[in-house]
Write a structure and sequence with these properties.
By secondary structure, this protein is α+β, with helices and mostly antiparallel strands. The chain has 2 domains: 4-109, 2,3-Dihydroxybiphenyl 1,2-Dioxygenase, domain 1, CATH 3.10.180.10; 129-181, 2,3-Dihydroxybiphenyl 1,2-Dioxygenase, domain 1 (Roll), CATH 3.10.180. It has helices at residues 51-61, 74-81, 137-146, and strands at residues 4-9, 15-20, 43-47, 65-72, 87-94, 101-109, 129-134, 157-158, 165-170, 176-181. The strands form 3 sheets. Strands 3-6-5-4 form a 4-stranded mixed β-sheet. The chain has a 4-stranded mixed β-sheet with strand order 7-10-9-8, covered by helices on one side. One of its GO terms (biological process) is L-methylmalonyl-CoA metabolic process. It holds the Pfam family Glyoxalase. This is Glyoxalase/bleomycin resistance protein/dioxygenase. It comes from Gloeothece verrucosa (strain PCC 7822) (Cyanothece sp. (strain PCC 7822)).
Length: 182
């Protein structure tokens, strides 16, 4: 059996995908029996311009681990993306087996992906922000600074009415990451 999926857009045009995993695939939690229609969120997928560049950032700098990798081609991938002759290098990353992951989609064909516009702000409907919960945000910020990562926020920001701190940074392709301390 193969994984079954269906992509569609929400009212604001964001891509969403419903996935069904056969018994021998996917995390154990996706096979639990209950009355709910949706079992949860498995991952967020982002298009990247270069898998190696993204792995240097997500794996080496942030410590995420590769869970699986594949090269998807053919009619199924073309139909799923609505892109004729699509060839996609997919790399799934996560911190734990149970945690939600980030899936890197490196479109080899078609390869005309555009970079995020420089004037893009948090108010743009197409904006995507991935929240990463961390144990020690001070250490993360220091590591990011030592590696020359540009901050969107003014480094650490104290969240209103909490003792939590957070910061926003872009990844190598401009995807926004929100780091928040647990």
């Amino acid at each position: 059996m193969t994984v079954k999926s269906f992509k569609f857009k929400d009212p604001d045009g964001h891509d969403l995908e419903l996935i069904w995993f056969p018994p021998d695939k996917g995390k154990k939690k996706w096979h639990e029996q209950n009355e709910q229609l949706f079992l949860g969120i498995d991952h967020t997928a982002i298009a990247v311009s270069n898998t190696e560049q993204s792995l240097k950032f997500y794996q080496e700098l942030l410590g995420l681990k590769i869970k699986e990798s594949s090269l998807n081609t053919g009619k199924t991938q073309a139909d799923l993306d609505g892109l004729p002759h699509a060839v996609v290098r997919i790399t799934s990353l996560s911190t734990t087996e149970k945690g939600m992951g980030i899936e890197l989609l490196d479109y080899i064909k078609p390869s005309e992906g555009r970079s995020r516009p420089k004037n893009w702000t948090s108010t743009v409907l197409a904006n995507l922000q991935i929240e990463l919960v961390v144990n020690n945000i001070q250490d993360i910020v220091k590591e990011l600074q030592n590696n020359g990562v540009k901050f969107i926020s003014s480094h650490l920001v104290q969240l209103k009415n909490t003792s939590k701190q957070a910061c926003l940074i872009p990844d190598p392709d401009g995807h926004v990451l929100l780091f928040i301390e647990e």
